[in-house]
Batch of 2 targets.
Target 1
Amino acid sequence: MAKDQQKNHRQKQALIRIIIMAGILLCVNVLASYFHSGIDLTQEKRFTLTEPTKKLLRNMKEVAVIDVYLKGKFPAELQRMQEAVRERLASFKDLAGNKIIYRFINPIEGKDDKGQKQVVRDLYQKGVMVMPLNKKDDDEEGYSMKICFPYALIQYNGREMPVLLLENPPGKTPAEKISYAEANLEYKFAHALNEMNRPDVARIAYITGNGEAMGIKTMDLLSTLPRYYTLDTVDLTHTLQISLAYDAIIINQPTIPFTGPEKLKIDQYLIHGGHILWQANSLNASLDSLAHSPQFLALEYGLQLDDLLYKYGIRINNDLVEDMQNIPIGRTYNGGSPELHPWVYFPKLNPIAEHPIVKNMDFVMSGFSNSLDTIRTPGIKKTVLLQSSKYSRTSGAPVRVSLSMMNYPLKNEMFNKPYRPVAVLLEGKFRSAYMGLLAPEYLRLMDSLKQTFKLTCDSPTSMIVVSAGDIFSNDYTTKDGVLAMGYYRFTGEYFANKDFLLNCIEYLTDRSGVLEARSKEIKLRLLDNGRAKEEKSMWQFINVSVPVAIVLVFASCYLFFRKRRYESKPNEIKPAG
């Protein structure tokens, strides 16, 4: 009877322990769904958000609804992309809480052909494009989707913005494209939220009056910027000053010399806290000059900007950069089809700097370019954004440019001036280039016009000087019309010119620091495909059998030692007193 009571008591205790353990596990899972953290042990900190992104998410006032159109049975690369997007949005939700709602949607699921076409049209109107897939048979490694939409659509603060999740940079393998896309996920989502969260759209002024590029070659530039900013044109020759209401100004390919008053307007705009994007060349060189003659002389424009830029810490040299890493041009013989030949005057710029403006960026296309020199200037930090390759050189003005160069082989040892800067970022508290140079009468006149002359910046500001020719220009044809900035029609390649432009403007106008997220880089750690196929069965067996074997060994040891501990010993017969 006593044994039965002890047995019942042990069973009740075991049941209570099981119930308590189940309750603890349930509570832990519930709490983990709301509060969870982790340690990022990856070398590149791929799972750690940057501080500007964290600040943005913590300060969200409205609810952001994010629809991700990556749902379905996709190829392995897109499945990896699915998980990367899910992990990134989960990390956003950890900080923003219920201010972030995301869902994965297959927009064409359950629809017939007519319905699918309508969905494609509706999403196109919202900026969401379709990407075709090569359909495979359904098997263990196949997929059945015909198309996909590598986009997310964000609704926030009364606005809606598409986010392209998977780009197609040229020259990269599928695995490299996925890694490139993963590295930019944080920036793309944070950038979209930041843009929709800003109460006022930044204002940009495109400066004219000194022969700046206008017309059909700037159509893409002048149509792209208004999508993100308020863009105005300001004639420098017909304004008393550049309004500080503009967050940044663009001076793009001037060809007419600047006068003293015009330079003073630019100087005071900068010293009062403005930001400037310069794209200027010192030599007059254009491919159009070869249309009627096989050669021409590249002569100086004489823009009269040397004194101004020198005081800020930069100089545009009177030379042309020649580079073995270049973009070919088409040359026609006897009326036939154009043949492509290397053209050293069109450097193909590879952004290798760690700065967020150019980090993870593809090649940038340029035309006739001048090299830049940085000048030691107290308090001004210089960062080279774009430069020529290892095999480059410069030719001083006047430079004779001739098509006959195509007829002679060029050797690497001839190009002995490597890494010539062609785009530099300058940051700090600038000093006026007119310090001590203006007559007292002129200063009194400025005061009477309520234009305060300042000697130094009160707070740090920035400018970007680019001497890579035609970097912000677009091509055009009578057949296709205006082509995209960075598209080279002779090879069909897309270069990152437009990304460079938008990143420059964003850095100059946005003080949130969200652009810092572009500095992330996810390193590829690829498997040996040949070895993976050969050892596939072995690793499948190990992955299935080893965990089961470990559990069985643990259970056997547990039962063995438990039996030894609780095994009852036979009663010893004691002799009677």
Target 2
Amino acid sequence: MNSKTQMKVMAVAVASAFGAPLHAADGAVFFGEVTPKLYSFDYFKGSGTNATQFLERYNYQQGMGGNQRDGNYLDLDLNVVGKNAQRTVFELEREGFGASNHRGTVKANSDTLGFSGYYTNFRTATHGLNFLYSPGAGVPGGIDPAYAGNANTGYLSQFNNDSAGQTSFMVDRTTYGLGLALKPTLFNAAAAVNYDGYKRDGNRFATWILGNGDVNSAGATGARVLERWRGVDKPIDEKMNRYTFNLTGAPGGFVLSYEGALEKFDNKSKTFTVNDFRTNIETLAGGVASGAVVEPGIYTRSVHFVPDATLISNNFRFAKNYGSTAVAAGYGLSVLDQDSFSQEQQAASYNRGKITTNSAYLNVTSNVFSSVGLEGFAKYNNRKNDSSFPAVGLLDPAHGEQLTVRINWLRTLSYGLAATFRPTALKSTVTVGWKRQDKDRDLTWSSATVSSVQPHESLYKEKTRADELYVNWNARPMPGMILRVTPAYVTASQTGLVSEPEEAFTLKTKLSYAAKNGMLASGYYNYKNYKNANNAFTDSTVGGAPAAITTRQDNNKTQQSAGVSLNFPVSEWINTTASLSWLQGDFASNFLRSNRRRYEGTQNVLFADAGRSNYNVDSHILTLGGDWQVSDNLRWNGNYTWSKSKGNIASGYIFDQLSANNTIDGTINSALHSLALGVDYAVKKNIKLKASYVYEYNKDASYPALTGGYHALMMGVGVGF
């Protein structure tokens, strides 16, 4: 048996192992390619061997022997395809970029069945630069001076790193899934069963700040527990399994579908706890009261607790055409249950975490008139919180510091109308529409007689009332040219969140042209502006009662983007591409602060506006690419990308505080160069030599420690069959 026949037999065996209904009698022809590869890589001019290099974060490499800075490793690509006269009946693909970055897919199809499977494995590395962003440690002004001179002196004035010198944090993400589809030819309906899962393993840098413990047992307020603000090496060990079932049929002209899903999330690191070392108390101005006894002992708290959970969902959909009118409707029900609880929740008798969501929609479109189309829709969503309430110690007026607010239910009703016209000018289609959103929140706030945040001390409100008007214009001014323009305006009389727009204007435009010679050119410009000055803080008197003075938040967010692209075939053998894009983010808001923590209701809580802070960053991206089929045996390809971001991420009071000792946290000024070259050369009909070279260099003028480069060379041999 020759090597070509052996590869065919292997492909058929793989297909059979995956349940594909294939055999030689089906007339399937198998062909493919196996490519062993050798990689050689090097990270240069970056951080040392004990810290993660910037370019390594999302391009983790490891050579033979475990070296992460430079080295060599082997990998393998595989591609197998089987086809008969009707369809592609089998596909198997595997791509490898190192032991920590590879992926694969498999598909099989027959007249009645379809099968699919996939997996990906990807490692990222983070927090490799010795935590230079630690607030309070390297950033003057990290502690609000408004706290000085009162019982809050010393809050957050020391950061303690308990990660045992760890500077390399890595997370492995693995996704996988299987699917089986039954095609309509079986019983005039289609059904599918799917399984999807993911798993995350590794560790990350995390910080925690424990509440309470701010005075010693004798009540002295001049002493602070500085040990409660810490950074730790936190493990990650979690997985998710999701099972879905789909059924679709069309009896009597009705299109009916159902989707049911069961999703289970399991967090093995949910019991991660840390110690609060109460015995390490620094004496600040005023000293410890005479005769005071420092509170002894060590106790643990759950940190970054993420519970196990189960989500069950059911969705029903219906559609039917009645002449020139089409009706579609649906209903969904989902229940999210919390399956595990932290030790603090258990101590507070919080043993039921449940959220039930009901949703429904109705959509009607009609083309009664040949030149006018009408559309109307309505959507309803009701999310109800059925969790334990009250939970003594978590949300109960009789126990200490309380949670801010409980969301009992959140109801949203959206509806709208649209009309589409088709004027003859410029071969246009114009759609004019209106949308309305009514959102209501039922909130329960903690009692004002205990330490808790009150409604007037929060920017979170109960109602959102917004209207949107929009126009969508599509035109064909000349053969091959398409123009799209979509402006929209939103106004809201009430907003529950400052992130919701009180007033907004958006504009999307795109112009494309396809020439007869194969050239394709396009350009676009997008603009968004969101404003919100609806909500404000109100000062509190002793006992949490509102005072007369309010301090308003005023957000103004503008995003702009523009770009042009060109795909130009120089000849039958040469194709080139180029694009240039620009993005700008401009966000301004008032920097609001208070003289103490808001939930300290036994004291006066006063708010102040320290001025406006503005984030403004421009990014430019240039890409060039091309491929050249030199001959039947030789093909070159390459692409280059240059991206640059520059701007300030703060202004005014905040920027002055940051720039007093560093510019790292106040500005962005970086450029990234990426170059990739590749070549394929067919030595024989079934043997192909492959090589590629990748070069990346990041230069950061604001944060020189992030400057560094990476390059890698790959050589492989593709064996076809």
